Amino acid sequence: MCGIVGYLGHREALPLLMEGLKRLEYRGYDSAGVAIRHGAGFEVCREVGKVASLESKLGQDPSRYRGTEGIAHTRWATHGVPAERNAHPHADDKSGIQLVHNGIIENYQSLKKALESKGHVFRSETDTEVLSMLVGELYEGDLEAAVQAALRGVTGAYAIAVMCAKEPGVMVVARKGSPLMVGLGNDEFVVASDPSAIVAHTTQAFSLDDFTVCRLSREGYRTSSLNNVPVTPKVMELEMKLEEIELGAFPHFMLKEIFEQPDALRNTLSGRIDLKRGDVVLGGLQSSGPDLVKARRIVLTGQGTAWHAALVTEYMIEDFARIPCEVQYAAEFRYRNPIVEEGTVFVAISQSGETADTLAALEEAKERGALTLGMVNVVGSTISRVTDAGVYLRVGPEIGVASTKAFIGQVAVGALMAIYAGRRRHLSIDRTRSLLEELESIPDKIRQVTSQSGSIRDLVARYVDRENWLFLGRGYNYPVALEGALKVKEISYIHAEGMPAAEMKHGPIALIHEGMPCVFVAPKGSQHDKVIGNMQEVRARGGRVIAIATEGDEEIIPHADEIIRVPEVSEALSPLVTTVALQLMAYHAAVLRGHDVDKPRNLAKSVTVE
Ligand code: F6R
């Protein structure tokens, strides 16, 4: 959601900024812009639509945009429609400020009023222009001081990069609530919302902490609090490899990431399974593990796909560890009056580690005394830093907007946590070993599903013109059905509903009509007969049954119109395999309908605002 890139160094800034913007495209946006320091001021170019449109506008007069300092931005509209006037960078009208911003300034209306009373005239509807004007108003010859002063009066979330015409060779960046990294190259700095725009240039970087300002100049950098107290950032080595964020031979990141899942899962499990002792080794839970084991209640939270992974985890924790467990939407939890008793363990699940609602729910739970744990993919992300302890997913960067391998990582970490706690409560060593052995066999089973990509495409082609799909499942298959429906709707824009199969009779069955695709997640398991009953109900009303079924399951054949086979897996771990079939269905449906799978309309990869 919004992307910032900044460059200060000795190379031409524009190509580097444009390359960075392209790497951040996956975050979601609807307009883009750039400001390059040129002569005594800036050359600014902004455009609605894709980065490619901005690029062709810049290409009309390339010599104007020569310079070695610049800031660039992809905007995902919050305040004001996607329009050139609302795209960033935003200038002030007094001091020669250019500013890009990710986040939301909550008190922008009162700030705007005060600035208007001083004669400032606004040209956009954005909160960002207010911030730019505020910095300009407070500027007295020191950009860093002006930014610090402006941010002291701001509430909300921000990551910003600011330049001033009067201070060549200086860029000031700051953060609260929205991610921002500073890459340290050879006599150059690359600033970006995430490491994917930095790693091609340097692997030395630091993340800014909340309420921290960093002044970059040709002499070096200086980091301080909003009150100008020096802060020492923690410089780290970026682990991201360039090939991880490049398409290679795949047409889309989503497909690449679906196919990466066997390796991603191996990485998640690596070093965490001790078959000899029949145990799980979770370094991240070394000190908090005992509290998890004796928890009186576990609350799992997340949004979207992470929420679905939480549902699977809930079932596993109750199944293996017999600890009362519940799943809450983070956005609901944060605004309720949630009960957090002694012994409550709160687990935040997030790929990005930056989701605003999940972060706020986590802070609420912490405030109320819960032990907070994280299941996060992005190392060093805000959620991973705010939690008391946690387990990283280790699935590598997820660029496709539709989450795929992160779900597999989340469910796998959920399984590890559940088995870890279960083993210390009542799971026998034999059952533990057999679960762990099975987990280790899952990557090959996922590969058996991805190898059917072509036939899944052919199947989907027969239904891709239908505008309403149902996804149904019972028990562990219910969250998988929800995830399948979410995948289909977010990238193919087909209306899809997921629900427990038993719920169908309580209303949704009225929707079923001739030819409506109803996808049943129906591997062999304890409720198989009941699911077959639900299939019959669908067919009796003209619906078409597409079954995700276990290899060798003959019983299902007469009840399904189409079958996608998955290898046999125990019920609890089956979501790791069945979900992959649904991801492929959604992917092919979107491609067949001609959509841009990696950049679905209206969506952002990480939702850093409410
Ligand atoms: C769906 C999807 C979203 C995210 C949700 C949470 O494919 O990607 O539903 O799962 O926005 O994001 P994270 O996991 O980054 O907190």
Give the count of helical stretches.
Answer: 18
Domain count, please report it: 3
Main sheet properties? 8 strands, antiparallel
Shape: globular
What's the name of the CATH homologous superfamily of the largest domain? Aminohydrolase, N-terminal nucleophile (Ntn) domain
Question: What is the third-level CATH name, the topology of the largest domain?
Answer: Glutamine Phosphoribosylpyrophosphate, subunit 1, domain 1
List keywords for this structure.
single chain, alpha/beta, Rossmann fold, eight-stranded antiparallel beta sheet, binds fructose -6-phosphate
Describe the structure.
This protein is an alpha/beta fold and 610 residues long. It folds into 3 domains: 3-243, Glutamine Phosphoribosylpyrophosphate, subunit 1, domain 1; 247-451, Glucose-6-phosphate isomerase like protein, domain 1 (Rossmann fold, 3-Layer(aba) Sandwich); 453-599, Glucose-6-phosphate isomerase like protein, domain 1 (Rossmann fold), CATH 3.40.50. The protein is built from 18 helices and 26 strands. The protein has an 8-stranded antiparallel sheet, covered by helices on one side. Helix 11 (356-367) links the parallel strand 19 and strand 20. The longest helix is centred in the last third of the chain and has 22 residues, at 429-450. It is globular. It binds fructose -6-phosphate.
